[in-house]
# Entry
Amino acid sequence: MSGNGHRERPGESPRPPVWPGAPNPLGARFRVGPDGVAGTNFALWAGGAEAVELCLFDEEGGKGGETRCPLSELTHEVWHGFVPGVHPGQRYGFRVHGRWDPWTGARWNPAKLLLDPYARAVDGDFVLPPEVYGHVRDWPQQHVADTVRDERDSAPYVPKGVVVHDDDDWADDRRPKTPWADSVIYELHVRGFTMRHPGIPEELRGTYAGLAHPAAIEHLVRLGVTAVELLPVHQFAHEDHLLRRGLKNYWGYNSVGYFAPHAGYAATGTAGQQVGEFKRMVQALHAAGIEVILDVVYNHTAEAGELGPTLSMRGIDNRGYYRLQGDARRYADYTGCGNTLHVVQPHVLRLITDSLRYWVNEMGVDGFRFDLAAALARSMHDVDMLSPFLAVIAQDPTLRRVKLIAEPWDVGSGGYQVGAFPPLWTEWNDRYRDAVRDFWRGALPDVRDLGYRLSGSSDLYAWGGRRPYASVNFVTAHDGYTLRDLVSYEQKHNGANEEGNRDGTNDNRSWNCGAEGETDDSSVLALRRRQLRNLVTTLLLSTGVPMLVAGDEMGRTQGGNNNAYCQDNGISWVDWSLLEEPGWRSLFDLTSRLLALRHAHPVLRRRAFFSGRPQEADGLRDLAWFTVHGEEMTQDDWYAPAATLGMYLSGTDIPGRDARGEKVVDESFLAVLHAGADPVDFRLPGEPWAACYEVVVDTSAEEQGDVAGMRYEGGEVVSVPERAVVLMRVGR
# Structure
C-alpha cells in the first residue's frame, strides 16, 4: 500500500475513528478529548514522509493483532490524530511511507514497524532477525545490500510503544539539591549493583525496585556518597554482532527510546509499570539524601550505520535525524557506533531537550552525564562551544538548574575538549585519572601535573567563572579496569568478549605490583592493597568532585577485563561477599571514613580555586607545596624528578562565606604523598605553618587504628613508608 490508503487484512480488528487531534505534544498522550471522550493523542514528526500510519496492537501482538489507523492531519511536519477509546496500556507503533532512495539518504519502508521516539514505555526486546532491517540484510553482495529494500513485515519481531498515564505528582518528593562542591558521585549499574546483594529479595534483584530496596540504599548511606550516576537506563537494544555470539549489551550505550525506562530493569511489568517503578526508586533515593544522575546517550542510536536495523528514526526520516556524509548512503560517524544524531536540526534538538526535561520534571532525576558530549556540541562539522545544543541548555530554565556532566570528547577530528565546556558544565577529567595512575605506578617524570590535578585542575578550569568542581575526578570508570584490576593487571584479559582480545584499550597505565592477575604471593597482595588505599585516599583528598565506581570500595574484580560492556554476568556484577572478608572490608571502612572526613571539612570541598596567597594580612597561603626537606617548592623543584609531594591546605584561609555570611574557618591539613619504592625522611614544616601534627590517615597501615592519633612536632623529621599517603591534622 502507499499514501493514505488502507487495505483490510484477514483477522484485522475494525479500525477505530481517528479525530484530528493536536500536533503538540509529540508522542502518545492520554487525555480527555472533544465532548469529554477519553482517548490518546498521537503526534509524530516525520518531515519528508508521504504518509504515516498509527498501528495499534492487542495483547498478543504480532500480525493478526494489528490495527492500522492513517494519520491524515499534518501540521508543520507533524502527523497527528486523536483516537477515542485508546487508554493507558495500549501497545502501538508507526509505519511511515515515502521514497526508497538510499543514494540520497531516503530510507522509508512501510513494511517496518517503527518505535515512537517519544514512547514513554516499551514492551518487548529487540532481537534483530532479518525482518527488522529496512534493507535485505543477507543480500549476497554486501557492499550494496543497504540499497535493496526488504518488504517483509517487522511487526511480529519488534517491541511496541506503550501508552502511559501521566502522573506528575511529586508532592512527597524532596530533592536533595546537594551543592556541586559537596557532591560525591557513585557510578553504578542498576542490574549489576543489585544482582548479587543478599539483602535484596531475589525477585527484585537486577531492577529499579532492587535499587530502591533499603538494603541497597543502606550501603550507599554508610559509604557516604551523595549521588548515584546510573549507567544508561533509556530503552536500549543489543547489537546484532553480540546477539549472534550469545551475548548482550550490558552497559546499555545503545539507546533507542529516550523517554522510556529500560524495560529489562523492571520487576513490576513492562506495560507501563516500569515508569512508576523508576519513579519510586528515585523517591526512595531522594528520601535517603541521594541524588540520581543519568548517563545519557544522545549522540547516536541503536540503528548503527547503513547496514544496521530499522527500528525508529531511520524509518521516520533518515535525513532529518542523522548526520550523513556527502555520499548520503553513508553516515557521519563521530561516535564510533555507526551513526551520529544531527543535533543541529531543530526537531532533533527538540527531541533531546524534551527528553531531558521529561526526566527532570516527571521522573524526578537530578542531573545527567552526557556520553561523548563533544559530538552533541558539533555544529555542522567542528566542535563549537556556541553550538545550538549548548546554547539551548544554557538558557533553559529547567535544565540549567540540574547537574550537567560532559564526557568531553568524541572519536571525530578535534573531538578532545577537556577543559573547554562552558560554565554550568562539569567534565570527566581524564587528565586527573592519567596523572594519578602514573604517579602511583612511578611513571610521572615530575610532579607538576599531579599538583594541578590534586588542587582542582585550575590550568583547565579557571576561566569563565568556572569553579574547582568543574572537574569530576576519577581514577576508574565503568569503561576500563576496576580499581583492584588496575593494580593487578598490566595486560587486558578480554577473552570472554569473544573478540580475540582486540577490544578495549591497550593504554591502561596500570601496574600489577609484580605478578599478572591472581596470585598467592603475600608480598604482592600486600602491595596491591596498599596501592588501592593510596588511590582511594588521593582521590578523596583532591579538590574537585570525586567519582567512585560501584564495588571499587570493596575490591571488585573483572578478572582483568577492561571492556566488560557485553558481560551481563559475574564478571560485571558487584560481589557483595567481599564485604565479609576483613581485608576488603577494611578498604570499605577507609573509603567511608575518608568520605566522612571530606564531608566534615570544607577545606577539602573548596568552592573556589586556590590562589597560593594569604586571604588576610596575617594569614598563610591557602595552598602550599613542600619538598621532603620541609621547604616550600621552587620552580626548579616542580621540574625535577620526584616521587614525593607535600600538600598543605590552610583551613584559616578559605575564601568566601557561609550561608549566614560568616567567614568559613576549618582545620588545616598536610598530606604527604610518596610513591617511591623505599621509605623517605620528610621534615614537617614548622612555624608559622604548624606547631605540631596529628596523623589522621596512613595508608601503609592496614588497620588505621594502628597509626591514627600519632603526634609529631613541627620541624620534626618523620619516616614516610614506601608507597604511602600520610594525612596529618595541623596543630597550633
User: Anything to note?
Assistant: The chain has a mean pLDDT of 94.
